[in-house]
Amino acid sequence: MVVAGLGVGMFLVFGGAALPAVAAAGRGDPLVVTLGAGVLRGRAGNGVREFKGIPYAAPPLGALRWTLPQPAIRWRGVRDAAAYRSACPQPSRYGLTDASDDEDCLFLNVTTPAAPAVQPRGRPVLVWIHGGAFIGGSSNLYPLDYLAREGDLVVVSMNYRLGVFGFMPHPSFEASHNGGYALEDQRAALRWVKRNIAAFGGDPSNVTIAGESAGAASVCMHLIAPDQSRGLFEKAIVQSAACAVRLHTVSEAEAVGRNVAHLVGCDDAAGALACLRTKTVAELLEAAANAASGELMAFAPAVGSRTLPQQGAVALATGEFLRVPLINGGNRDEMRLYVGYDVLAGKAVTPTNYLDKLRAIYGESAAAVAAEYPIASYSSAPAALGTVLSDFMPGGGLCNCLYLRSGRQASVYAPVFEYEFADRAAPPVMPDPGFELGAVHAAELPYQFPHISHTYKVDGPDLGAPAGRLAAEMLAYWSHFAHSGAPAPAGLPAWPDYSGDAAVLRFDAGEIRLFDAGVAHHCEFWQRLYPEILGR
């Protein structure tokens, strides 16, 4: 079987027994699919079939706010699945993203190639979990046709509860899943995939979960909670999140929940949950923004419930995680994105205040950091600071040395393929801050989701010729991994199992090669400064 459109001579062969649901999906109208909850009608175009806005759980409204996801409500007649449905409640961020106040948002989307599958068991399935710092984002932003058509995959994306509705612990919530409702939404969606994806021509026994940023961190959370996630997927892809980063415990994170409750007048412990359920979405979003006090990760997942029993570093070190094949890595210049946002907000980075900026993050080690990363070695002071933060930042999950540590720990127990996206000519993902951004956080997304943008109202730019070629090459590796569990497309450089920092595959326009990521990101230097975080 040839995976069409990759342009790299990728040939894959698969076998297996036929599934009756797959055969049934190929009969009659290919845009009509019958599920247990009802009948769907999708749309066709661009070489794919798309089914959007499919409910995978009941709307989490009223008494279902801050509860586990409940079964989706059956519908009568044929449900129109040609358009996306609401994103989950969120504010607009950086003046760029779309806001939402609609709690009826637990929908998923399925895109599959228009041509019938040749695999007897159906096509491999890739489930994409969107990012957005756990407080924003939506599946609506991600065009799935490229991955499905060119990768010969059934691709699924989902919405899940965000911020105060999905990731906030509070003492009045059920202890067993306190602060974990969004992760449980994702698991409900994965169970839906296992039950229903054969009707779309997908193979439920060959599911890969993937995500970027908060979506990648969500993949980490499912990996490190094996009892909760076992049987939901067979492979995983983590793009720009360190599975070994330390998270707040539920008891620590409850401080934010108590503050939110206080700000909306729900201080009484006995009646707090009932009181919170009476508040409007707007009231809760405003309280959440004030309670976060500018902390980017105020609503990150919390450890200490059945949803997420233990820290990632512990799970990886002891092998107490789902030992599935893993693609793991991130972007060369991750944190230059956030330095750029600070610069646009008037927080200039100059040679004069460079050391002060470092001191605010690294304390008494700032002078040593400045000596290791002299401004003269970079195009500007903001680029220098962004490079430092991208290599390592205590308490941060978007840094390359911690990606390497996470991959190194996991590779003791499971196949790990470590990578770095390094195309510094990638299309910009933010307004020009006046310095070289490079391969910042989220810069790889246009290579996987052409024309992705911060808002569904505006398409992102086309990729130029070198970037377009790199996009096809990356897709060849990612889709080969989804098909077989090993990213080994014919005609491209070999990608070995991660056996050390020199076995990392760097993706740059015009060049894909192994390189020593530990040396490139000064990881021995950082390990000497922070052995408790980066120690082997």
Short descriptors:
536 residues, alpha/beta, Rossmann fold, 11-stranded mixed beta sheet, 3-stranded mixed beta sheet, globular, disordered N terminus
Structural write-up:
- 32% of the residues lie in helices and 15% in strands.
- Helix 7 packs across helix 9, helix 11 packs across helix 14 (381-391) and helix 12 packs across helix 13.
- It has 536 residues and is α/β, with parallel strands linked by helices.
- The protein has helices spanning 20-25, 145-151, 163-166, 181-196, 214-223, 226-229, 250-263, 272-276, 281-292, 312-318, 336-344, 354-362, 366-372, 381-391, 400-411, 445-448, 465-484, 517-520, 523-529, 531-534, and strands at 32-35, 38-41, 43-45, 48-55, 78-80, 107-113, 123-129, 154-158, 202-212, 235-239, 326-331, 416-421, 504-508, 511-515.
- The protein has a domain at 20-331 and 407-427 and 461-489: Rossmann fold, CATH 3.40.50.
- It has 20 helices and 14 strands.
- The strands form 2 sheets. The protein has an 11-stranded mixed sheet, sandwiched between helices. Strands 1-2-5 form a 3-stranded mixed sheet, with no helix packed on it.
- The longest helix has 20 residues, at 465-484.
Mean pLDDT level:
93
- Outline type: globular
CATH architectural label of the domain at 20-331 and 407-427 and 461-489: 3-Layer(aba) Sandwich
Low-confidence regions = 1-26
Largest sheet: 11 strands, mixed
Counted by DSSP, the helix tally is 20
Short description:
With 536 residues, this protein is α/β, with parallel strands linked by helices.
